[in-house]
């Protein structure tokens, strides 16, 4: 998440337009991107006329530069200071062989600068560029306004959204997920298709819980790694109400999970958190999952693989930890509020105060002594984005919904990881969830990043997306 995003820039020009707007656009855009800590790759100013693209020869030079640096490039920014060469730009992208998001920006004209020497005509040129990109088969992103000055806040918002989409697309196309154990047999809701995910570059690595438990048996209580991990757990969360024995078991389990994740270079995990975990090992894995999510290695419960994929997508969009939650309860008679809940395993950063406890619901059938390890706290008020990815195996496609809301500070006297949230037109959303075969789990993140996810999912991954709080919906 700390790696700088790098954009490849293509500046368009035409020989019968003045040079100064083109040179000014290069300087302005490079300064802006540097100030936003975005890396850039662009033709040298003397590599072509003005360092821009116009001809087939220019396109070849631009493409060669991009191909030589393809591993660095996360997206392409097309800059149109003037009308621009729609074919030269499209050829540059085709010859580069890049398959990354593309943002098209066009400079505005000023009414007092419409003479031959100063006019830009990028308003018109942008339509031509977009037409050619479509003909060549390239999806692309647009700025909120058709033409926009790069120094405005509006364009900075456009750029932040685009950079977020670049992160999501790059991360998901190479995502490696871990499935630890079998899903709870009564939870058909979390079934999914590995093949549909793999078709979009998302791989799943599996392991049986018996292998995990066997590895923990080989660790001694006094092993230095166990003692170090125990101290880490105790530093992460208040464990005053928890006996030492289950904490030591958690430490061993955490080491084994970390080793398996590292060996397989996984980005996220979904774990069988009940009932084999309690019956055969004697703890809840919630706190370990919370710790992983908090350090941006998202972990979801009940082997909900597409649920943890939703967590990972939110994390890529915002750079913040995510949580997997139940759409769990109404809140009084407010139709736009509800309670989100899990036993719980939410990242500590969602809370101001948090403690380790036992899973009170599971304890009713499995016993308190085998269910220590939950994270208990109420989420603090903050922005909130919710997202859910699922595979519709009957229709052979990936579907998702996204939207923005708020975590409120309403009273909520219960246990586990919990939050009261407010979402505009919540009842409409819930009807959509029920009628379109989505699970009872959703993922949430303390941000407003639904627009980023919708752009990444729809435009570049080709998924069917319901954007609940889209401004124009």
Question: What does this protein look like?
Answer:
- By secondary structure, this protein is an alpha/beta fold.
- The chain folds into 2 domains: 6-173, Rossmann fold; 176-467, 3-Layer(aba) Sandwich (L-fucose Isomerase, Chain A, domain 2).
- It is 38% helix and 22% strand.
- It is built from 15 helices and 18 strands.
- The longest helix is centred in the middle third of the chain and has 21 residues, at 153-173.
- The two termini are 31 Å apart.
User: What kind of sheet is the major sheet?
Assistant: 6 strands, antiparallel, barrel
What is the helix fraction of residues, given as a range?
A: 25-40%
Q: Which CATH architecture of the largest domain is right? A: 3-Layer(aba) Sandwich
CATH class of the largest domain: Alpha Beta
Order of strands, widest sheet: 10-11-16-15-14-17
Could you provide a short overview of the structure?
By secondary structure, this protein is of the alpha/beta class. The chain is about 40% helix and about 20% strand.
Main traits of this protein?
single chain; 473 residues; alpha/beta; Rossmann fold; L-fucose Isomerase, Chain A, domain 2; 2 domains; six-stranded antiparallel barrel; five-stranded parallel β-sheet; elongated
